[in-house]
Please model this.
Amino acid sequence: MDELLNSQCIDFRKLLILKAKSLKITDQECFLLLVIMTMNDIGMKPITPSQIGQLCSLSLQQIDKTLISLVDKHFIARKRGTLDLLPIQKMLLNQSVEEEKDVDLLSIFENAFGRSLNQMELEIINTFKRSGYDDQMILDALNESVKAGVINFRYIEKILDNWSRYGVKKRYAPSTPTVRQDVDQNIKDYKWWAEDE
Model:
C-alpha cells in the first residue's frame, strides 16, 4: 500500500470528494484539503495560511481555525514546518494512522529559559504550532538557540523561518561517514623519492 502512496498513481482529490461525508469532513475542511493538495502537487512550499488565503476567499481566521480542526482530527499533520497529507491519504485508502505522542513544550521551554513563561510567550509558541511547525522542529530550534547562547523567541522564530524557507531539517544533522576507497597497489608502492630528475 505504501508503494501506491509513493508512486502518486491515486487521485486523492477525487477520492476525498467521494469519501468526505463518510469521514465526517465538513465542506470547508474538504475545500481546504483540496486547496492544500493542489498546492502540494504544484510544489508550493511552505504551505502557510497566508498562501492559502491568496488562493481562496476565506479569511485568515477561518483558514487558521479550519487548519487547527484538521490537525486536531488527525486529517493532516505538521512535520518539520510543513503540512503533511499522509494521514488523510491513509484514511482515504482505509489504512490505520498512527498517532504521535505530544511533547510537553511548555515545561521544556520553561527549563531552557529557567523561569515560567508569560502569556505572550505562550501565544508565540502557539503561533509556531499554527504556522505548521511540529513539536520536534520547535524543540530543535530551541536547542539551536541554546547552543548559540541566544535564548529568546525572536531568535527561535528566525531559525524556524530559515529552516522552512530553505528546507533544512536540522543545523547539525548527523552526517553519513565517508567511505574510503581502496587505492591502487601501484600508487601505494610508488617511490616518489627515488625518481630520476
About this structure: Residues 4 and 126 are 35 Å apart (CA to CA).
